[in-house]
Structures are given as structure tokens and as C-alpha cells.
Amino acid sequence: MVKLNITRDAFRLKQTFTISRGSRDVAEVLTVHLTDGEFTGRGECYPYARYGESLDSVTAQIKAVEAELTSSLDVHALQSLMPAGAARNAVDCALWDLTAKRLNTPVWQLANLPEPTHITTAYTLSLDTPDAMRASAQEHAHRPLLKIKLGGEGDLERLRAVREGAPEATLIVDANEGWTGATYDTLAPVMLDLGVAMVEQPLPQSNDDELMGRARPLTVCADESCHGVSSLDALAGKYDMVNIKLDKTGGLTEALALKAAAIDRGFDIMVGCMVTSSLAMAPAMLVAQGAKVADLDGPLLLGEDRDAPIHYKGSEMSCAPRALWG
User: Fold this and answer.
1) Catalytic pick from 147, 149, 238, 248?
2) Does the predicted TM-score (pTM) go above 0.90?
3) Which of 101, 147, 238, 245 is catalytic?
4) Which residues lie closer than 8 Å to 216 by C-beta, 6 or more apart?
5) Is the torsion defined by CA of 140, 49, 11, 271 positive or negative?
6) What tens digit of pLDDT does each residue of 153-188 get?
7) Which DSSP state fits 319?
8) SS3 state of residue 95
9) Neighbour-count burial of 169, counting CB atoms closer than 10 A to its CB (0-12 exposed, 13-18 middle, 19+ buried)
10) In the annotation, is 313 catalytic?
11) 55 exposure class (CB count in 10 Å sphere: 0-12, 13-18, 19+)
């Protein structure tokens, strides 16, 4: 018999983190613990209000399937038991972790993946005034890849300020659904001149048909428009890349399936995260192996982290210690 325990954990951020939808100073996450008496598997999720999720709603989703979780449920049966989203992510990753501990076999072997190696992650600059973003870019100019949060009036000024602050870094942009098609048409050539390599979710998911057939001189990545394998059909002709986040796919199991299906259909791969701890990064790092862009900087934005955290040397991310997960 497996026992379920759900905890709410809060991690202080190094500084206020702002995107077009709001600001936060603390990362509040939900952690699922599955214990069989000898071993405990853990998984972390970030309930996202953009998708109608909260700590309370995700807790209720998990508790609703407690009977199945505490019997003989595995990650494959879980996919039809729970919908994609943060709740299933935490459970899915906890089941992978528990199985790895029981069998004394790392998750990458259980999933028939190549042994993971270190990767380079993007580092995110919070949305702010041009002067503040220039200063932040200067502080992190040594990093090879910077991600800039945009999504409103003054975006071009912010971009120019960041480029001044970090003249050598490759830049990617996250508009968080804050643009229109016309905005993209106006900004894309300028961004290319500024050395921007990609823009993430420029248009709202509900209005991204504007991208269909549109000239895309600047690579466009689907984030809010891409959740699992079933969402890929609607992305063809609109996007060049997909951002895989485990809180969207509902865990590692679907994330790996989405990665394989997206590559098969010709999409480039980005693997992203919410502002979460090393426990959430560990399974995501398995998906990020070989991805064109890894955006797994959550712990770098925190003022505190889990015990046995993932080690970052600059923007280079080491593999997760098994004491943490997997």
C-alpha cells in the first residue's frame, strides 16, 4: 500500500519576478510524496492561474484519485485517469521517482533514454523598465543565452536596452501572448537586427490563427498553444518550435511523447519551466537533452532551494543528484 502526502512549499525569490500578467516574490508549489514504507517518490508542480489552476484546485484533483494512487497505479494508467496539467505532473513525476528508487535504477534507464549530460540553460530577465533591464543584462552579460520577458508598450526600447547591456549574448523573447500579428510584423525585422533568435508565444492562444501562413522571419515558438501531443495538429503552419513544460503536459510521460511527436513533425524543441525548485527541473532536464533551447533556470531565480539541489555553474546545469529525484 502506498501512502499519499501533499505539501505546499514556498521558496523565496532573489528579487521580484515580473511578466506581462503580474509579479511575484515567492514561488508557491505543490509537492506530492508517494511512500511505500521504505521508499518515497516526489514530484513538484506549479499551479498556474492562466490555466485555471490554484493550489486548492490541484490538491483537490490529486485527492480525488487517492484510492487509485495508493493501490497499483503506474504512469501509463495515470494518463487516462487524470487530465494534463499541474496535478498530473506532480503525480507522474512522483511515480517515476518511486519506481526508480524501488528498482535502484535511474529514471533515464527506465524510460530507455540516453544517459543525460549537463546542458546550458537560458537565463530570464524579468519585465521592467528599459534602464532596469539594461542593468540586469549587464549583470548577466556573461551568460550565453538570455530570455527577455516582454509583452506591451515599450518592448522595443527594452530590447535595445538589453542588447546594450549584454552585447554578446544570444537573445530570445517571451511575449506571453501580449502582441498582435501586426506587432509581430513590425518588431520581427528589428529583433533580427538586434540578434534575437526566437520569440515565444507572441499572440494569444485564442487568436494565434493570425500566424497561419504569415511570413515568420523570426522563429516563433508555441508555449500556451502547446500542451500535449494532441495539440500539435493545430500548430502546423503557425509555429516553428514548441515549448514543452511538464506542468502543461501533465508530467514526464507525456512530455517525452510530445517531444518525439514534435520532432517527427518537424518542430524544433524548447524545454521550459515555471519559477520552481530543482525538484521540478530534474525530470525536465531529461526532456531537454538535445533540445534546441533549454530554459530551466527556475532555481537560479530563487533565493533558496531544495536539499541536494541541481548544481549550476554560470548557465551550465549539472544532472540532478539521485538524492533529489530519479
Assistant:
1) 149
2) yes
3) 245
4) 188, 240
5) negative
6) 788 899 999 999 999 999 999 988 888 899 899 899
7) P
8) helix
9) buried
10) no
11) middle
